[in-house]
From TrEMBL, chain A:
<keyword id="KW-0560">Oxidoreductase</keyword>
<feature type="domain" description="Pyruvate:ferredoxin oxidoreductase core">
    <location>
        <begin position="249"/>
        <end position="336"/>
    </location>
</feature>
<dbReference type="Pfam" id="PF01855">
    <property type="entry name" value="POR_N"/>
</dbReference>
<dbReference type="InterPro" id="IPR033412">
    <property type="entry name" value="PFOR_II"/>
</dbReference>
<dbReference type="GO" id="GO:0016491">
    <property type="term" value="F:oxidoreductase activity"/>
</dbReference>
<dbReference type="InterPro" id="IPR052368">
    <property type="entry name" value="2-oxoacid_oxidoreductase"/>
</dbReference>
<feature type="domain" description="Pyruvate flavodoxin/ferredoxin oxidoreductase pyrimidine binding">
    <location>
        <begin position="18"/>
        <end position="187"/>
    </location>
</feature>
<dbReference type="InterPro" id="IPR002880">
    <property type="entry name" value="Pyrv_Fd/Flavodoxin_OxRdtase_N"/>
</dbReference>
<dbReference type="Pfam" id="PF17147">
    <property type="entry name" value="PFOR_II"/>
</dbReference>
TrEMBL record, chain B:
<dbReference type="GO" id="GO:0030976">
    <property type="term" value="F:thiamine pyrophosphate binding"/>
</dbReference>
<dbReference type="GO" id="GO:0044281">
    <property type="term" value="P:small molecule metabolic process"/>
</dbReference>
<dbReference type="InterPro" id="IPR051457">
    <property type="entry name" value="2-oxoacid:Fd_oxidoreductase"/>
</dbReference>
<protein>
    <submittedName>
        <fullName>2-oxoglutarate ferredoxin oxidoreductase subunit beta</fullName>
    </submittedName>
</protein>
<keyword id="KW-0560">Oxidoreductase</keyword>
<dbReference type="InterPro" id="IPR029061">
    <property type="entry name" value="THDP-binding"/>
</dbReference>
<dbReference type="InterPro" id="IPR011766">
    <property type="entry name" value="TPP_enzyme_TPP-bd"/>
</dbReference>
<feature type="domain" description="Thiamine pyrophosphate enzyme TPP-binding">
    <location>
        <begin position="58"/>
        <end position="205"/>
    </location>
</feature>
<dbReference type="GO" id="GO:0016625">
    <property type="term" value="F:oxidoreductase activity, acting on the aldehyde or oxo group of donors, iron-sulfur protein as acceptor"/>
</dbReference>
Amino acid sequence: MSEKKRIFIKGNEAIARGALAAGCTCYFGYPITPQNDIPEFLSTEMATVNGEFVQAESEVAAANMLLGAAAGGARAMTTSSSPGVSLMQEAISYMAGSELPGVIVNVNRGGPGLGDIGSSQGDYFQSTRGGGHGDYRTLVLAPGTCQEGYDMMIEAFDLAFKYRNPVLVLADAIVGQMKEPVIPWEPKAADNHGAENWCLDGAKGREKRLLKSLFLEDGALAGQNRNLQAKYEAMQEEARADVFECDDAELVVVAFGSIGRIVKSTVRRLRSEGKKVGLVRPLTLYPFPSEVLRDIAKKGKRFLTIEQNCGQMVDDVRLSVRGIADSEFHGHMPGDLPGSDDFLAPIIKHLED
Amino acid sequence: MSEKLVFDAPEIMIDRPTHYCPGCHHGVAHRLVGEVLTEMGLVDDTLCVGSIGCSVFIYNYLDVDAVEAPHGRAPAVATGLKRAHKDKFVFTYQGDGDLASIGLAEIVHAANRGEKISVVFINNTVYGMTGGQMAPTTLLGQKTTTSPNGRSAEEHGMAIRMSEIIGGLGGTAYCERVSLDSVKNIRRAKKALRKAFEMQINGTGFGFVEMLSACPTNWKMDPIAANTRISEEMIPYFPLGVFKDVTKDGEE
C-alpha cells in the first residue's frame, strides 16, 4: 500500500479538493462568507483539469448554470452559504423535477435573514424538506471534519448520478473554516451511471431528448411524482450514522456535523468519569438514519438531541423512535460558538433526570 | 400525374399542429429558427433551452435536444450547457416577460460575459400564457389585464428597449431587432438569425435577435390588425436594425 500523504488544509479547501478528485469539471458560484475559499481555490484549480469556472452574477444564476451543465451530463457543482442557498432553491426544485444530478454545498451560517457569518445548523429543515416548491427531496450529507468534507464530496457526485438527483452537502462555518490534516485520495473512476443515455449532447443518430419538469397531460405529473417518490424510497438504503459508545449507554445523544463532533468530545469526557452516555452522529440527514435510532430505542435507551439551532433534527429523531421512545432537546443558539464544556451540563441533567 | 414539390417544411420541424392562437407569430419564429438550423447543418448538434410561457413548447415542434429552464433563467442554463458542451450549438428562446423582467440579470450578464450562445427574443409587449398581463415591454397606453387603463409612465415606467441594452454590452457580438409583421421583414429576420448563429459557430461571441411579434388574443385584435399594430405602433418605439455587429464596426 502506497504511503498516504497528509495535507494540512481548511475544510473549505478539503471540499474543493474532494470535488476535483470526484471528477467535477464545471463550477459555478457567487461569493458569500464563510465559503469563499472554495470558489477562490477552484478559480485557478479548475483550469488544471480542463474544467470550467464561472463566477455567476447571482446565486440564482449559479444554480441555473448548474442545472444546464447537469442537463449536459457534466459533473458539476455550486457552493454557497445560507442566504445564497435560499436563492438557489428554485433551480434545485427544477433539477429534482427534471431528474438532473448536481452537487450543492451549503456552508451553513447563522440566520434567519442575513444573520451572521458564524456557524449554525439552522438550515436543517430547508435541506431535508426539499427547500423549494413541490414534493421532492435532496440527498443530504453532513460532514463534521475536514476529512469528511473531502470524502463526502466524492460520495456526493456518485450519489447524484446514481439517483439522477441533486445532492446537498450541508457543512457549516466550523467545518469550512477550521484547518486540520486531510488524507486526499482519488476514487478509481467516476461512474456516471449511464448519463450518456439521457444527457443532452446533440440528437445525431438517435431520437431527440427532452429534460423537463412540466407535465400537463392528464395523469402525467401524478406519474412523475410516483416515480420520484419511488426513487426517494430507494434512497433510504444510503442512510448512515457514526454510532459511538451506545451499547451500554443510558442516554444516547443525537447530534450532527461539527456539533456532533464537539458533543463527541463531551461524551468522551463523561465516559472517562464513568457516566454511561453514547452518541449517534447522523452522516446522512436525508435519508435520515431512522433504523439505527429505532434499533437503539428498542434497547430501552433514552435520547437527547443537541443541535445548533432552535430544534429541527429533533423532529426526525422523534419520528424515528415513535411508539418506542421520545427525545429531549437541547438547542445551542446560532450566533454563539460552543465548546465541549457547553454540553456537559445539559447532558448530565438529562442523564440524571 | 406526377406532382413536383416546390415548397416544404425543413425536416427539423416536427409534423404536428401547433398550440398557438391564430395569428400568433411563434409559429413563424419557430419555422425561421428551424430553417436556419437546417440550412447551417446544425440539427444534430443543437441543444435548445426552453423558457416559460407559450414558447416553452418549442421543444414539441423542433426535433432537437432540449431542456426546460425556470422563468427568466434560460441564459444561465444555456451558459452551463454550453460550458459542458463547447462544440454544440446552444440557443435560448424567450418571451418578453421571461427575458426583460424576471430574467433581466441573466440575459445582461450572459451577454456581457460573451457566452457563445444565441438568444431568440420574442417581444409581443404582453404576457401571453398567463393571460395578458403587463410586460416590461408593454407600450404606453396599452391596455392589459394589470394595466386596465393603459400603461402610464408615472405608474408603471416606460417600455424597456432590450436590443439597445444588449447592443451596448461588451460581450455582445451581434444584436439586431427585426419584425415578423410582413414578408419583407420576415426575410430580414431570417438573415439576422443566420448572422447571430454564425457568431456562435465561429466562436465570435454572443448573438441576440429580438423579434417584434403579434399576440392577437391578448391584444384583442384580429391577426391583420395585430400586424398593423406592429408596423404603426411598435416599430416607431422599437426601431428595427442592427445594434451591434463586431464583424462590421471593428469592435473587440
